[in-house]
Amino acid sequence: MALGGNPVFNSKSYREQTGPNAATATFHAQPNLSAQELQDLYTKPSAGPQQTGRMTYASVINKTMATFAVLLIGAVIGWQAPGLMIVGAIVGLVLGLVNSFKKQPSPILILLYAGFEGLFVGGLSGYLEAQYPGIAGQAVLATLSVFAVVLVLYRSGKYRATPKMTKMFMAAMIGYVLFSLLNFVLMITGVAGGQFGMRSGLLGIGIGILAVLLATYALVLDFTSISEGVRNGAPEKFSWTAAFGLTVTMVWLYIEILRILAILRGDD
């Protein structure tokens, strides 16, 4: 089931490898086996996902932790050297696009994305922290809280992706992206001033809340794609794709929350 949303999980390669036929294997008969050997094969415990090289929740968690560790290292460097923020943003964007459309996941490229994205996140956080002390900690706490709530609701079955909601999500995402591109152009041309251009005041808060809601639904789509990958026996290497997808969504969620807090603190 392709639900859309995060392009990382919606890529053709990921869908093919995590679909219902991902775990299909060919049985090769082994000649010259004795009756006892056949009996031993029959009674031997079945190999688990880890033994057969399949994606598991544990492998996804481990890869995600590794990705976030590199992200954190990059963020610390970016915090200390805010000038690297632009480099992190540009290189992170390029690597994000490369990883999103790459047929096979590359751990090195995914970790490099996390590192450069960390430079951007750390630089932006440090810049706003200098203006509004404590804002970075508030944004981190809020992001982790939203993630925990969404995960609990998803695990309980109370927050699930549906075709109708996904269509609405995609329509809203298109509008959000177009508005963001327009705002960016107006900012670099000097038409819209301020730290966030048109994303200031009540309009900025409203757009920010919409973006946070979109990010929470993107998390649900991420969880759904991961669950399907594990259930269908996707190759273990796609745990890196899952880790990358979660990192993209979490960084987006954090930046949107950080922006909302900055707007609110700026209006004090």
UniProtKB/TrEMBL annotation:
It comes from the Bacteria. Keywords: Membrane, Transmembrane, Transmembrane helix. The keyword Transmembrane helix applies. Pfam families: BaxI_1. The chain crosses the membrane at residues 60-77, 83-101, 108-128, 134-154, 174-196, 202-221, 242-264. This is Putative YccA/Bax inhibitor family protein. The lineage of its organism: Bacteria, Bacillati, Actinomycetota, Actinomycetes, Micrococcales. The keyword Transmembrane applies.
